[in-house]
Structure prediction request, 316 residues.
Amino acid sequence: MFSRRSALGSMTAATATTTFMKPLSASAAAPGSSENLYLLPRLDAVPGSISQPSYLAPWDPKTIYYPRWLFGQWNVTSTFTSVATPLKKYVPEGFLQQANAPSEDGGVGSTYNYALRFYSTLPDTFSNNARFMLGLGYPEDAIIADKAFNTKQTSDAFLGYTGAVASVEFDPRDAPLRQTVELSRLGPDMVPLPPRRIELYVNALKSEQPGGVEGDGKIFVTSELARQVLVAVRDVQVTDYEVINEYRLIAPGKIEGRQRSLLYLTPQDPNYFRAGNKAVTMYDYAFTMTRESPEADAPQGAVACVPTPKDVIQCL
Prediction:
């Protein structure tokens, strides 16, 4: 059985040139953010009241764009604070065992350390295409997560050892809703393991920035609903889960946040219709993020630098 630690760890970023980007105010809203708050209440909802979000429509955005203050490489410490099983009788046995595990084995109280990266890109939006085609000026950049890097970092942390993930394939332009994660053929004790692969499909995503340009814009909330397909030798396991993250900027380069991971049953589960599309298990985490300072050779005035997936160093 692929454990809760494994499932959630998979979800939930060399020589290079340097680019320097113009700073924006911290109050600038991320593209696609919403003032009709939907996600923040889900972080405070009582167990048993949260339903699975609807799938993306063909015209919906396929990428989450983050506020400028999340740019950079961050060192994260995350603590597993609580677990609730409002529909316990429908929860797969492996997830129940992990939820009741001691903290040293991934239960409540366990702590994880990893890095996250967020960098600048030129999004393929109607506005940018119009600017280019009509000569209306330079396209506007946006901040996105380095998903391949972030997935490897969080998966290694939750699986318990560096190198747990051999590789992550991700194409942000042609396949922004899919990742392929190859797990290592060696365990933490160097014992050989059979080949295993995880296919991740994002079926829903949403972001909101309470306050937006009208407020201080120092809170940003995201949600991704993913289907995880674990492919092993003569075994395929399918898991549906949603990860909600709340980021609160408390000082430049310092973030505190919450994460809620929700497990849903898949249509193949015999209890799927009995669960009524509700989350059967809910895991809560609290995390802190500290942004790494630029190297000594960074451009003068830079407050943050980050490598991109193409090995370009961006500085802000």
About this structure: The mean pLDDT is 86. The first strand starts at residue 18 and ends at 20. The helical segments are 4-10, 39-44, 93-99, 126-134, 147-159, 272-275. The chain is about 15% helix and 35% strand.
